[in-house]
């Protein structure tokens, strides 16, 4: 018998490094700008819908999230058979990887982008292949289109940079790639446009979305995928039978139906983002042009110095003031930057004060 029962696990799972989520503090006294959650409360209709659902918790939820699927389909001008709902969009990304990546069928992604994809591939016993961005962060269309991956993950707008890719460029990849193209649109509702029109043209495209960012429901865990009915049917085979609980289905549906409430919040976030970008630019920070609800910015001293040391130093200065942002030291393209979620104007002003104090010292 093996000394440690964990040694009975599959060898590639024993070697697996788990995904590291951003810190989730257990007290409310932090300005929390490290995981791109909404810093406004969700629509009041969410709590009403959840309360109304409390009387039937003894019953299983709709296995296919039927009502929510219909709401999502209507929102995007699709059929319910083109939609799958997940326990967060991570669940849908996981289903995609489980169904389309395995022995002799690899996955691909751009670097940097969402660091969950390689972990999901590793669970399938596969190494993901990376296509690196250059410092301009433009979409390398030819490299993506000629990827040998059976499933390719494209985050659009990109995370962690927030950079927008024109739909024609993504269409060029979709039309040429020999595999499934997943467009992870976690942040698309903050951007000027999205790739939903591509679903009418390319059967190999799957788009994933989430209620965690725009709808302020990260705690509820709801996301969805949209694609060809045949692909959705494959994903439905892999999904847990009751993958989204009753309260989450009801709450997400109420949120997605309250379009007016969220249009106002999206407008506020865009305004705050653009104004924060101008403020840090005036202080000498370079930032990638972001269309998302966060900004990747490079802390720079008054004398013009920047690099990993300066990024860590400003991260620490924020932390001392109980402000959480994200430092991503993993790749050379991001290790001199901090990723900062866009909060309320008041929160962003507090950050600017900390930056000013840091610049006088650094
Ligand atoms: C690019 C991207 N995709 C997906 C997700 C996961 O979202 P969800 O909360 O729906 O699982 C995130 C969350 O940070 C993300 O940044």
Q: What are the salient characteristics of this protein?
A:
362 residues; 2 domains; 38% helix; binds pyridoxal-5'-phosphate; 12 helices; Aspartate Aminotransferase, domain 2
Nearest-angstrom radius of gyration? 21 Å
Let me know the average pLDDT. Answer: 96
Distance between the termini: 58 Å
The CATH topology of the largest domain: Aspartate Aminotransferase, domain 2
Determine the strand fraction and express it as a percent band: 5-15%
SSE order: HEHHEHEHEHEHEEEHHHEEHEEEH
Q: Which CATH class of the largest domain applies here?
A: Alpha Beta
Please give the count of helices. Answer: 12
Biggest β-sheet: strands ordered side by side in the sheet: 2-8-7-6-5-3-4
Bound molecules: pyridoxal-5'-phosphate
Mind describing the biggest β-sheet?
Answer: 7 strands, mixed
Number of strands: 13
Tell me the domain tally.
Answer: 2
Helix-strand makeup class: alpha/beta
Shape: globular
CATH architecture of the largest domain: 3-Layer(aba) Sandwich
Describe the structure.
This protein has two domains: 23-40 and 260-361, Aspartate Aminotransferase, domain 1 (Alpha-Beta Complex), CATH 3.90.1150.10; 44-257, Type I PLP-dependent aspartate aminotransferase-like (Major domain) (Aspartate Aminotransferase, domain 2, 3-Layer(aba) Sandwich), CATH 3.40.640.10. Helices cover 38% and strands 14% of the residues. The chain is built from twelve helices and 13 strands. The chain has a seven-stranded mixed sheet with strand order 2-8-7-6-5-3-4, sandwiched between helices. A four-stranded antiparallel sheet has the order 9-10-13-12, with helices on one face. Helix 2 (44-53) runs antiparallel to helix 9, helix 3 runs parallel beside helix 9 and helix 10 (259-282) runs parallel beside helix 12. Pyridoxal-5'-phosphate (PLP) binds at residues 35-36, 88-90, 114, 155, 159, 184, 186, 210, 212, 218, 223.
């Amino acid at each position: 018998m093996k000394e440690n029962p964990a040694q009975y696990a599959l060898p590639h799972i024993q070697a697996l490094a788990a995904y590291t989520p951003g810190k989730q503090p257990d007290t409310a006294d932090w300005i929390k700008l490290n995981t791109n959650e909404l810093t406004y409360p969700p629509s009041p209709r969410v709590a009403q819908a959840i309360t109304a659902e409390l009387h039937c918790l003894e019953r299983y939820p709709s296995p296919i999230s039927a009502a929510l699927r219909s709401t999502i389909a209507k929102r995007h001008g699709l059929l319910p058979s083109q939609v799958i709902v997940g326990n967060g969009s991570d669940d849908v990304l996981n289903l995609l990887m489980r169904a389309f990546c395995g022995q002799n069928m690899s996955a691909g992604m751009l670097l940097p982008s969402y660091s969950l994809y390689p972990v999901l591939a590793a669970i399938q016993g596969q190494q993901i292949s990376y296509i690196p961005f250059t410092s301009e962060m433009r979409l390398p269309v030819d490299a993506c289109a000629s990827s040998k991956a059976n499933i390719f993950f494209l985050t659009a707008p990109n995370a962690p940079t927030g950079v927008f890719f024109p739909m024609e460029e993504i269409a060029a990849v979709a039309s040429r790639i020999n595999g499934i193209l997943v467009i992870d649109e976690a942040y698309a509702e903050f951007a000027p446009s999205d790739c939903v029109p591509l679903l009418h043209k390319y059967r190999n495209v799957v788009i994933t979305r989430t209620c965690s960012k725009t709808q302020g429901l990260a705690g509820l865990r709801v996301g969805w995928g949209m694609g060809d009915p045949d692909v959705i049917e494959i994903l439905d085979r892999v999904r847990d039978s009751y993958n989204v609980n009753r309260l989450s289905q009801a709450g997400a549906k109420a949120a997605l139906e309250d379009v007016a409430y969220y249009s106002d919040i999206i407008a506020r976030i865009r305004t705050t983002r653009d104004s924060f970008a101008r403020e840090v630019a005036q202080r000498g920070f370079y930032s990638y042009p972001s269309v998302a609800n966060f900004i990747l910015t490079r802390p720079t001293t008054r004398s013009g110095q920047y690099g990993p040391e300066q990024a860590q130093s400003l991260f620490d200065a924020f932390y001392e003031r109980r402000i959480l942002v994200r430092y991503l030291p993993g790749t050379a393209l991001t290790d001199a930057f901090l990723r900062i979620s866009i909060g309320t104007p008041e929160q962003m002003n507090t950050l600017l004060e900390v930056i000013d104090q840091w610049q006088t010292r650094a």
